[in-house]
Amino acid sequence: MPSPTRVVITGMGWITPLGHDLDTVWSNLTKGASGVRPIERFEAKTFSTNFAAQVRDYDFTQYVKDAKRHEHAGTHTRFALGAARQAWSQAKLDDTSLDMRRVGAYLVLDFNNYAFANLNAWQPEQNAIDGKIWAQAAQDRMHRFDEIEQEPIMPAAHLAMEFGVRGPVYNCLTACAASTQAIGEAVNILQRGDADIMISGGAHTMIHELGITGFIRLTALSSRTDNIEGASRPFSRTRDGFVMGEGAGIVILETLEHARQRGVEPIVEVIGYGSSADAYRITDIQPEGNGPAAAMGEALGQAGLDPEGKGADGRPPVHYISAHGTGTKENDSIETRAVKKVFGDNAPAIPMSSIKSMMGHLIAAAGAVELITCALAIEHQMLPPTINLTDPDPDLDLDYVPNEARPSEVETCLSNSFGFGGQNDTLIIRRFSE
Amino acid sequence: MSRRVVITGTGPISACGLGIEPLWEALLEGESQIRPIATFDASGFTSNAGAAIKSEDFNVRDVVPKTYRKALKVMCRDVELAIGAAAAAVSHADMTTKAVNADTTPSIEPTRLGCHIGAGLIAADLDELTAALSTSRNSDGQFDLSVWGQPGMGNLTPLWLLKYLPNMLACHVTIVHDCRGPSNTITCCEASGLLSIGESMRVIERNSAEACLTGGVESKLNPMALLRQHFAKRVAPTPEGEDPASCLRPFDPMANGTIIGEGGALIVVEALDSALARQATVRAEISGFAATQSHADERIGLGTNPSHQEVSDAMSAALTAANVSPDEIDAVFPLGSSIPGVDEAEATAIETVFGERTKSLPVVPLTTITGNCGAGHSALVVAVATQALESQQLPARINTTNSATLDANVNPACECELKHVLVTTCSQGGQNAAVVLSRPEMN
User: Fold this and answer.
1) Tens digit of pLDDT for each residue in B58-70?
2) Which residue is closest to B147 within chain A, CA to CA?
3) pLDDT of A174-201, one tens digit each?
4) What are phi and psi of B253, to 5 degrees?
5) Residue pLDDT, tens place only, B207-258
6) Interface check A46 vs B, CB under 8 A
7) CA–CA distance, A246 with A240 (Å, rounded to integer)
8) Is the peptide bond before B244 cis (omega within 30 degrees of 0)?
9) Ranges in chain B, pLDDT < 50
10) Strand pairing of A51-53 and A352-353?
11) Which of residues 6-25 of A touch B (CB under 8 A)?
C-alpha cells in the first residue's frame, strides 16, 4: 500500500569516477565512457588487480563553508561533502528558512584506511605483537585525527556540522547494499513524521592498500590487467569480477507537503522500498535469488505495482531496472534469475543495465549513485548502457542495454543493491505527478 | 493507529556474563566488573582497565549451532558476542528459531523476522595482520608494498576482510536464526543500540516484519580501539595502586573519563499482536522513541562536548511520542559516560526536561558496573531498564558521591514502583536518542 505521506527527491549530487556534477557524469554515462585507470593512490604494480575507477582532480574545499573545520576529514567524507552541497543547492535549501530540528541525515560509509600496523612491535618468536612497544609506537607515530576520523559515523557527523542538521542522524553499513537501504529507511523516517527533510546517500572509498588487498583475497575483483577499461563486463560470458570504484551520491529527500510549502519542484517520487536478508552464507548469494526477489517484491507491493501486470500503456509497470550488476559470475546470474522470478513474462521486456561497467563498484555509495542515475534516466528519457557487453553470457537472456545508450520512455525505475552477507535492498522511483 | 511494539526478550552480554540473570545480580549488588586489562598488554596506555567478559562466563562454542561451527574461524570477537546475545534473547523471548530447533515450525515466519544490530568500527586483529605483513619486508627489513602485492598478501587468510565488516554481526545472526526480513547495521557509536531499536520499531510499525532481533554489540577491548579512545581523549587514567573500579564516576565533579567495557544486548522487539498470539511474556512496551543530532561548532568527535539542547530535544520528543508527561517518568537510565563534557550535557538535559523533579528522580548509570560498551551500550541499558520494569526494582548506584543536580549518587538497590522509564544516550558522533519503556498494559 502506498504510504499516505508522499516522499520526493528535491536535490541530487554526486562525486564519481566519471565526473563531479550531474551533467558531466550523465553525459559520460550515455557516451559509454569508462572511468577505469591504473591505481594512482598507492603503488599497486605488483597487486594482481592494479586498476580501479578513481575520483580524479577533486577539490572538496569549494563545496564547504570553512574547509578548516573538515581538514582531517577522510577521502570518503570529502566526497560526501561535495555531493551533499550539490544536492542541497539543487533543492534550493539555502534560500529557505528551515527548522533544523526537522532535518535529519541517513548515510553510509564503510571502514576506511586501516593504518598499517607497526612492525616495530612484531615478535616473530611469539608470532604476536608486543603490546607495550606497540602502544608506545602507535601513540608516537600514528595520526590522532586520522584514527578518530575512521569511525563510521564521521561523514554523517561532518555533514550534520556543515549543514546544521539537528534532527535524526543515522549511519548504517550493510556493505554494497548500504546506500539503497539508507535512502529507504530515511524515506520511512519522513513517512513516520519524524522529520521533513533527510539528507541521504553514501560515500565510500576502498581504494587503499588494505581495501584492494581484502577484495583480491576474496577473489572478487577482476584481474584483467591487459584490458582495464574492458575489465568491468557485467552479464558477459567472460566476466571475472568487479572493478573497484569510489565516490559519493547524496539525495535530498523531502515530504511532498514540505516541498510544496516552500515551492520547490520535486524531481521524482520514491514510491517503493523493500529490504530482506538471505540468511544463507556470508560469502555466497542464495542460489535461487530468494532474498533479492523478496526485496523487489516488497518494494513493488509498497508501490502498488503488479510485476506481472501491464500498465495503461500496455507496458510492464517498471520501465528500467538499474541492476546491482557487479560483473561477478554469481551476482549477474542470480540477479537475472531473481528478476525473472519477480517479473515473470514481463522480465525480457524490461531493460536492465549496470553502470558499474563504466564507473566500477562504488560499494556503499553504489546504490545512491545508481538511484540518481535512474532519476536522470527519467529526466532525459534515456537509458545508460552496460558497456563491454560484446560477448554475452548465453545463459543470461534479459535486455541489458548492451554497449550503447538508448532513448526510451521512462516513467518508473527500480534500483537493486545487494551486499556481502546477504543484504538485499530495492528502491522504486517514479516521475513526479500530482 | 500504528501497531504497538513490545519487548518480549532481552539478551544482554557483558562482563557480568551472558543473559539477564548474572547481570541483574551484579547490578543489585553493585559489583563493578572493571579490572586491569588482562587479555592483552595494555600497560603502555594511561587507561589500562576494562570490564572484560571472562572466558569462563562465555564461550561462543556453547551457543553456536553445531552445523554452523565451521564459521567460527571467520568470526571476530564482536560477532561471537552478538551470537551469544542473540541466543540469550531468543531463549528469553521463548522463541523457536532455526538455531533452537531446525526441525520445527519457527515461532515467527522467517521472512517476517528482521534483525538490526548496532556495531562499532571493528579493528583488525593486530597479530593476524602483522604476521602477514612481516613476510613482506625488503632487504633492509622494512615493510615493502611491492613484496606485499606479490607474494606477501597471500599469507592473509582469503576471508580476512569478511571478519571485520561491521555488518557481519547481523549477517551471522540472521543466518543462525534464519531472519530473512529487513536487516541493517547501525554504526553511530553509543547511540547505535537505541537507533537500531528505533529502526526495528519503524519496520514493525510499517508491517515489514512481526518481530526483530535488535540492539547492539561491540568490544573495544583490543589495542587499536583502546588507542583510538585515547586519541579521542575519552578514557579515564587508571593510576597504579588505585582500584580501577573506582575511576569511573558518572555525573561526579571528579569524573575524568570513561572506562572501556565489552558486550551489549540483543532484544526481541515484537508487534503486540504477534506476542499475544504466541502467548509470549510481554516484558515492556516501547511507547516512544526519538533521535536528534547535537550541534557542533568545532570539530566533531574529537573530545568536544555535545550541546545539551538536542539531548533534551530527543528526551522531550520521545516523551511526546509516548504521550507520557515528564512527571510520569519514574527513573532515567542514561549513558553516564563519566566524560565530563558529555556528563554535563546529559545532566543539563535531564534538568531541562524534568525541572524541579530532577533532584528526586533516580538516574541510574550502568557504566560503573559494565564499563562503557560502545555501540552495544544503549541496548544493554534497554535490557536492564526492561528488567527494572519487570521486577519493580532499581539497581544499585556506586562510585558517584557528589552529583550536585542529579539523584545519581551512591544508593543501594531498592524496590521502586516503576510505570514508565526513560532510556537516553549521547554518542561520540553527536547522535542522541531516547526511548520511553512502559510496564505493559494489555487493554
Assistant:
1) 999 999 999 999 9
2) A46
3) 889 999 999 999 999 999 999 999 999 9
4) -60, -20
5) 999 999 999 999 999 999 999 999 999 999 999 999 999 999 999 999 999 9
6) yes
7) 20
8) no
9) 443
10) unpaired
11) none
**Is A374 an annotated catalytic residue?**
no
C-alpha B251/C-alpha B254 separation (Å) is 8
Q: Are A225 and A379 in contact (CB under 8 A)?
A: no
Across the interface, do A153 and B168 touch by the CB < 8 Å criterion? no
Q: Please enumerate in sequence order all residues whose Cβ is within 8 A of that of A370, keeping only pairs 6 or more positions apart, or say none.
A: A180, A249, A322, A355, A415, A417
Structural domains of chain B sorted by starting position, each given as residue range(s) with its CATH number in brackets: 5-122+165-438 (3.40.47.10), 126-155 (no CATH)
Cβ of A217 within 8 Å of Cβ of B159? The answer is yes
**Cβ-defined contact of B133 to A117 (cutoff 8 Å):** yes
| Residue A176 a catalytic site member | yes
pLDDT at A134: 85
Between CA B303 and CA B231 the distance in angstroms is: 9
* Per-residue cell: B374: 560502545
B368/chain A closest Cα distance in angstroms = 25
Cα–Cα–Cα angle for A353, A356, A362, nearest 5°? 135
For chain A, list the domains and their CATH numbers: 7-114+150-431 (3.40.47.10)
Nearest chain B CA: its distance from A121 CA (Å):
9
CB pair distance less than 8 Å for A217 and B168 = no
Q: Which residue has the cell 521512462?
A: A410
The pLDDT of residue B133 is: 84
CB-closest option in B44, B162, B171 to A132: B44
**A199, three cell numbers:** 539528507
Q: By the CB < 8 Å criterion, does A283 face chain B?
A: yes
Residue A119's pLDDT is: 64
Q: In this structure, which amino acid lies at residue B228?
A: R
Contacts of B228 in chain A (CB under 8 A): 147-148, 150-151
Give me the pLDDT at residue A118, please: 55
Q: At what angle do helices B77-92 and B168-177 cross, to 10 degrees?
A: 40
B15 near B263, Cβ under 8 Å?
Answer: yes
Tell me how long chain B is.
443
**Partner-chain contact A189 B202, CB within 8 Å:** yes
Residue A3 has pLDDT above 70, yes or no: no
Residue A114 touches partner B, C-beta closer than 8 Å: yes
Residue A67 near chain B (CB below 8 Å): no
Considering chain B, what is the average pLDDT of its residues?
A: 94
Chain A residue numbers with beta carbons less than 8 Å from the beta carbon of B106 are none
Judged by CB atoms closer than 8 Å, whether chains meet at A42 and B145 is answered as: yes
Distance CA A367, CA A233 (A): 18
Distance CA A222, CA B284 (A): 51
Place of cell 517518568: B329
For residue B147, list chain A residues with Cβ-Cβ distance below 8 A. 46
Which of B171, B231, B302 is opposite residue A282, by nearest beta carbon?
B171
Mode of pairing for the β-strands spanning A320-322 and A197-205: unpaired
Name the closest residue on chain A to residue B302, using Cα atoms.
Answer: A148
ipTM (interface pTM): 0.94
Contact A165 B293 (CB under 8 A): yes
Please name the residues in contact with B244: beta carbons below 8 A apart, sequence gap of 6 or more. B34, B35, B36, B49, B238, B259
Q: Of the listed A70, A76, A176, A204, which one is catalytic? A: A176
pLDDT, one tens digit per residue, over A291-319 is 999 999 999 999 999 999 999 899 999 99
- Answer whether A17's CB lies under 8 Å from A245's CB: yes
Asked if A202 is an interface residue toward chain B (Cβ–Cβ < 8 A), one would say no
CA distance B116 to B173: 10
Which residues does B103 contact at the CB level (< 8 Å), separation at least 6?
none
| B286-340 confidence digits (pLDDT tens) | 999 999 998 765 555 555 578 899 999 999 999 999 999 999 999 999 999 999 9
A112 pLDDT exceeds 70? no
